[in-house]
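thread: overnight batch results

M.L. [08:02]
morning all. the overnight job finished for the chain we discussed friday. pasting input first so we're all looking at the same thing
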Amino acid sequence: QVQLVESGGGLMQAGGSLRLSCAASGLTFSRYAMAWFRQAPGKEREFVAGIHWTGEATYYADSVKGRFTFSRDNAQNTLYLQMNSLKPEDTALYYCAASAWGSGSSLASEYKYWGQGTQVTVSS
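M.L. [08:03]
and the structure it wrote out:
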């Protein structure tokens, strides 16, 4: 059974940093494209960052480019999202997602497996 478990969310002041983690189990992690999505109250889920299953390409939403860094540790089956210079508009529930042999694209429909999310709240 595939499980994705996010952690690391919390309350932070604007300008601060947080590091999210996503621990994966039940899958061959190195064969999966991974991504982070987020959903703010009253808004649709949106793409944050994604990585090709080979690790050779990484994609970011324009809204986080230059502030967020996405990485993966295949030995630990873990995905990370380092979030710096946080803004109140980054407040959302953050999800990790997995797609076998995927491209890491921004399309939510690409991803078969999803975690339950971790809440990030940024105060001004």
